[in-house]
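Input/output pair, single chain:
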Amino acid sequence: MDGYWTDERRMMQEAAREFTTNEVLPVANELDPEKGVIPRALIDKMGEMGYFGITIPEEKGGLGLGSFEYCLIAEELARGWMSVASIIARGNGFWRSIPGFGPERDEKIAQMAVGQYLGAFAMSEPDAGSDMASVKCRATRDGDDWIINGNKYWCTFADGADFISVVCRVETDSESRQAGMKSIAVEKPRGELPVGVQGSPIPKIGYHGWKTYELHFDNVRVPAIDTADESGSGPATMGGGFVGIQKGLEVARAHTAARSIGAAQGALNVAIDYANEREQFGRPIGKFQAIRFKIATAATEIEAARQLMYHVCNEIDHGRRADKEAAMVKYFAAEMSERVTSECLQIMGGAGYTTHYPVERFWRDARLTKIFEGTSEIMQRIISDRLMGK
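Output:
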């Protein structure tokens, strides 16, 4: 097939779309209005589909695929519930963060690939968001352990995860603000916070499929076991420090673009159905040019973002640096998604402003995509820095 497409990718897309229609949408429509969380039963079904192990190598129990397939599936899941499209990152984006070496670590990776061992990420702090180098949470070495003290904010899935990857500042001789940063895995019982950690959920206007926490680490003792690399034979460099964390954001931002596109497409699908059914002045409102042009514009903007996402994923999968392009697609898709979901709500009038239809959910969730994984303004800074120099 032409371009990016293969028969396998088409089949994968169709399977994810069917899964979303049959499994995700009914759960989202029921639970999101109640601010309910993703049921464990749905996570288990996603694990059976292999969605947590898309990018995990085959020899470790995953599908061994790339960012393209990862984002392809994420877009389809986001057409139902963006939270569900997000939770697959707790496997695909976390397998290199699992602590330890050898068979024990490999077993955890295999469990992760089927959704039975998932992570959470604690990077942001009350005073550290876009300025990641301002992290203050400290990890101090004490014999064979790290002792972690400090505060974290915006840690989603802190309760449901099996471990939390905590970005800390460690002792270093360098005077650089970016030096001395390390991601340390804190294992814990599922459904609880780690021993020595206190926290509470942050009230949110959307993204209701899971809880997002503020956390306080008080002398939390963690075994000082470095994460193994892909071969399991040595300490990892990727994800361990500032540069590694930044590089991982390329895939994360493409994933955010996929979620943005999926939310916009989900809203447009609902708006089209509504426009074909809702009658005013003796005919369906979809017959009026004002409505038809809104739909045409929205569909065009969604497709433009989608094609840019395909390009970015292809660059990442071929090992080419794509920090500028990842920032572009994250910025473009997020801005598009808020605009399109808002227009879809407008098409539906008062009905769109009710929880009887999922458009309001897509709209609320789309708003978040302009903030997390780097705000739209930070994306513009990255792009302009690459084009014009700092």
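The CA atoms of residues 72 and 121 lie 23 Å apart. The chain has three domains: 7-113, 119-223, 242-388.
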